[in-house]
Amino acid sequence: MIHLEIYIDGASKGNPGHSGVGIVILRAGKVIKNISGYIGRATNNVAEYTALIYALKEALLLKANSLKINTDSQLLARQLNKIYKVKHLGLINLYNQAMHLLTGFQKVLICHIPREENSSADKLATQAIKKALSRQNVAALS
Predict the structure, then answer these.
(1) What totals of helices (H) and strands (E) does the chain contain, helices first?
(2) Host domain of residue 93
(3) Who's near 72: CB < 8 A, 6+ residues apart?
């Protein structure tokens, strides 16, 4: 059984605004992969769900059977744990995609954690936005 612990975060500069995702994947307590990506203009909640979807796809590629997903998004955690319903039209498709991907694992635990415990994923998400904005600024100057 391959068990992974994953920290996810979505960041948005403005809501909606320039957005990024950050993912830290651990196996047996050791970081095996960091993912940082710019996703364009989105809301913070869309960025959170996009980070989750990227993480789940990566976990499937890594042939994981069991996952512990850590997020500082209370909304995402409560929606995935079926405490809250997904009502926002912009999130329903992302939620459905995530729920479909989750069927690829034998065991999944979704945990809401304090923001300060998610600093590595947050840093990766913010880094993606900064990198994209600096490229845009360089292109604008050219």
Answers:
(1) 4, 5
(2) 3-137
(3) 9, 112, 113, 114, 115, 117, 118, 122
Residue 55 lies in a domain: yes
Q: What are the tens digits of pLDDT across the range 5-40?
A: 999 999 999 999 999 999 999 999 999 999 999 999
What are the structure tokens assigned to 108, written together? Answer: 């999944």
Quick one: CA torsion of 73, 78, 81, 83, rounded to 10 degrees?
180
Q: Give the total number of structural domains in the chain.
A: 1
Read off the CATH number of the domain in which 128 is found. 3.30.420.10
Structure tokens at 78: 């409560």
Give the tokens for residue 18.
């320039």
> ∠ CA(57), CA(102), CA(128), 5° rounding?
40
> Does any domain span residue 100?
yes
